[in-house]
Automatic annotation (TrEMBL):
Organism: Kribbella alba
PANTHER family reported for this sequence: TYPE-4 URACIL-DNA GLYCOSYLASE, TYPE-5 URACIL-DNA GLYCOSYLASE
Stretches that traverse the bilayer: none
Keywords assigned: 4Fe-4S, DNA damage, DNA repair, Hydrolase, Iron, Iron-sulfur, Metal-binding
The keyword Cytoplasm belongs to this UniProt entry's keyword annotation: no
SUPFAM superfamilies, per the entry: Uracil-DNA glycosylase-like
InterPro entries per record: UDG_Type-4/5 (IPR051536), Ura-DNA_glyco_family4 (IPR005273), Uracil-DNA_glycosylase-like (IPR005122), Uracil-DNA_glycosylase-like_sf (IPR036895)
Protein name (Swiss-Prot/TrEMBL): Type-4 uracil-DNA glycosylase
Family: Belongs to the uracil-DNA glycosylase (UDG) superfamily. Type 4 (UDGa) family.
Domain Uracil-DNA glycosylase-like: 41-198
Length: 205
């Protein structure tokens, strides 16, 4: 695992989401800041009952500076509606705040963050959770699961089931919406994704 300085020294000790988001743009906790356009903070109500945690910003998110605004975000919006969840009531964020990619010609192709990068970025997610204090966290995909549950947790084995984060917060794991976008069995996989979100909605107090 690569050794990075980690984000601790850039995460403010106190304050709310606005202060956290302002500090994020200066983070040099790993090497991704050198290549990405910008850090992409989470967005949503400061006291959201439901927090969705994805992997990292994509190409569109990196350019626009907002989470889940690309193809996977549009699919997520549709799935949230189907599940009866108002996106405006949800805090949306990612385990890693900068876009990791490789260039193919003029295109920037998504590349999965390394374990070192996930670990280095984890103080930002911890700070978001401490401020928002969600009743339930939805884990979107393997990178978010690695960040929140550790390396032994398998989304494929536990998706759609009520679980608990190490600190006791209720959670539900599912796939990342980008995998549904790419699916050859789109209708089936979209339906399964919506079912998982419905489970999450049913668990909210």
């Amino acid at each position: 695992m690569e050794k990075f300085p980690g984000a601790e020294q850039w995460v403010p000790d106190g304050g709310g989401l606005r202060k956290l988001q302002a500090a994020l743009k200066d983070c040099r906790g790993c090497d991704l800041w050198e290549y990405a356009e910008q850090a992409v903070p989470g967005e949503g109500p400061a006291r959201a009952r439901l927090m969705l945690v994805g992997e990292q910003p994509g190409d569109v998110e990196d350019k626009e500076g907002h989470p889940f605004v690309g193809p996977a975000g549009r699919l997520l919006d549709k799935a949230l509606v189907e599940a009866g969840i108002d996106r405006g009531d949800v805090y949306l964020t990612n385990a890693v705040k900068h876009f990791r990619f490789e260039r193919r010609g003029k295109r920037r192709i998504h590349k999965t963050p390394s374990v070192g990068q996930i670990v280095a970025c984890s103080p930002w997610l911890a700070a978001e959770r401490a401020i928002v204090k969600p009743s339930l966290v939805v884990i979107l995909g393997a990178v978010a699961a690695r960040a929140l549950m550790g390396p032994g947790f398998k989304v494929t084995e536990r998706r759609g089931q009520p679980v608990e984060l190490p600190d006791g917060t209720a959670a539900v794991a599912t796939v990342h919406p980008s995998s549904v976008v790419r699916s050859e069995e789109y209708r089936r996989d979209f339906g399964l994704f919506v079912d998982d979100l419905r489970v999450a909605a049913s668990l909210l107090p």
